[in-house]
Amino acid sequence: MHPYTLAHRSLRAVLALSLSGGMAAALSPGLARAQAYPQRAVTLVTPLATGSASDLALRIVAERLATPLGQSIVVENQTGASGAIGAEKVARAAPDGYTLCGCNNAILSVLPHVRKVSYDPATQFRPVGMVAVLPTVLVVNPALPVKTVRELTDYVKANPGKVSYATGGVGSPQHIAMAMFEAGSGIKMMHVPYKGASPAAVGVAGGEAQVMFNAIGTVLPLIKAGKLRPIAVAGAQRTAILPDLPTVAESGVPGYDYASWIGIVAPAATPDAVVERLSKELMQVLKAPATVAKLAENGIDPLVMTPQEMAKYMADDSRRMATVVKQAGMETE
To answer: Which of 28-42, 64-78, 278-292, 294-308 has the lowest mean pLDDT?
Structure first.
């Protein structure tokens, strides 16, 4: 065979392979995107205050998630309007996987029932996966003469209008937890909303308010410093980081059970392949012993879910929170 003919056939074979690869990519754009994603840094917007347990959990996970993705993850705090500003930014972002939202249950399950917001969690976000459960604790300023839930409820009843509680804002996890507590214990305290969970904790430590529910990860340094006194755990089970602290339920408020959670969502039109890649790597990171240990040091428990499981969890929690908000009259605040 003539050398030119052989070379020509070889060239055609190479071109055919190249074209077939290109056609495969064209026929399966999701696969191509998954293989290419990410090609630059990913921004993880969190509408939560710096220093809060939610912020800490996201930063711990983001740092570890960057390695398998091969790109850095920039955590960007966008607070304001109880988290609505940051959530709206992500809802309107390009659905390419480069702008995600680290949102807690207040933003995804509570706030839309409290007031009108410019985003719809059910239609404008696509779940990527859960990150963590944030065990919550009931704390008081040490100057308040109470050391148990029963002593607190008795004191509030004996001093009507004189005890106030702090929260990170209307509809925040701290607000929801306290609304459930007031309903279950039959007491009423004055509400002092702050712009975030961390400022609220500092406010109670400084005596601006006397009581609050907050994530253990947020208030643990203040507890260790003696600036806050823990009196009960909000969840159904005691927590390993404060093993001697009873639950609210076993302290006289039967059935009480509350814990905040945080997860990652993407704009609704984000491609399947991108979400699947993120979800796969996120679940592996959350299962890693080093991640579990680091979260545990800060009183945070990892929560591993697929996007489908998270979607159901969000829907169920939203229905539950709608009832709590209505019963507490939060939508009028």
So the answer is: 28-42
189, 155 Cβ separation under 8 angstroms: no
Residue 21's SS3 state is: helix
Q: Concatenated DSSP letters for 88-144?
A: HHHHTS-SSSSEEEEEEHIIIIIHHHHS--S--HHHHEEEEEEEEEE-EEEEE-TTS
Dihedral of alpha carbons 165, 167, 170, 172, sign: negative
- Is the pLDDT confidence value at 169 over 60? yes
What is the C-alpha to C-alpha distance for residues 164 and 191, in angstroms, rounded to an integer? 6
Q: For 211-268, how does the pLDDT look when each residue is reduced to its tens digit (9 = 90+)?
A: 999 999 899 999 999 999 999 999 999 988 899 999 999 999 999 999 889 999 999 9
**Contact between 304 and 61 (Cβ < 8 Å):** no
Q: What is the pTM of this model?
A: 0.81
**Closest of 94, 93, 50 to residue 75, by C-alpha:** 50
What structural domains and CATH numbers belong to the chain? Answer: 42-133+260-328 (3.40.190.150), 136-251 (3.40.190.10)
Q: Which amino acid is at 75?
A: V
Which of 22, 73, 98, 45 is CA-nearest to residue 275? Answer: 98
- ∠ CA 212-235-122, nearest 5°, is 90
Three-state DSSP class for residue 77? strand
Provide CB contacts within 8 A for 256, sequence distance 6+: 180, 181, 184, 234, 247, 248, 249
Please report, for residues 99, 105, 127, 172, 307, the alpha-carbon distance to residue 268 in angstroms, rounded to integers and kept in the order given: 12, 18, 8, 24, 12
